[in-house]
User: What shape does this take?
Amino acid sequence: MGIAVIIPTLNAEESLAATLRSVAEAEEVIVIDAGSEDATVRVARSAGARVQASTRGRGQQMRAGADMATQDWLLFLHADTILAADWRTYVDAHAHGAKAAATAGVFRFKLDDAAWQARVLEWLVALRVFLFALPYGDQGLLIHRSLYAALGGFRPLPLMEDVDFVRRIGRRRLRTLACSATTSARRWREDGWFLRSARNVVCLTLFGFGAPIERIARLYGR
Assistant: This one.
């Protein structure tokens, strides 16, 4: 079983090296860069990743990465997310399970901050996934290329590309792996724990009601 890790980047030099080290066991690592002006591309190439330029937007970037991948399993990961050391054990177990190619997996959400607000947010994310089957991209996404293709892949959206795709996967085909993906809490520390979380909820609600994605992207800050 081969795994292709696909990482969209934009000025991610500070976090990318650690992310790449965490997925060193993958058969293939693809970095799709949207015009970084820092050392992102150099960091990726130094780690042995395949690097491809793309237009900006995670949806478009991840779609391009999936098109490049040569492995049967695709693992989409953000550039500031680090998988637990034993991630491959859980990924392999999922991939060898019954009807594995017809399901997708995500990791447990964790933040790299000791603040109590981080623990509350982790609990709320777990609750959201349990109740609504709506993990975000910072939990990673493991999916067989056949299911990915059958669902039409990521759409080239400027925002909410993860929610859009996960909704097409659906609750019955989604599994949460017993393994963590630790994401940088920098955005919450900079914007404020409450304000950042509240803005995310507002954006998700607007998307659910069909608001124009460009308007949501402006609200989000893209």
Remarks:
- The mean pLDDT is 94.
- The CA atoms of residues 119 and 130 lie 17 Å apart.
- The radius of gyration is 16 Å.
- The first helix runs from residue 13 to 22.
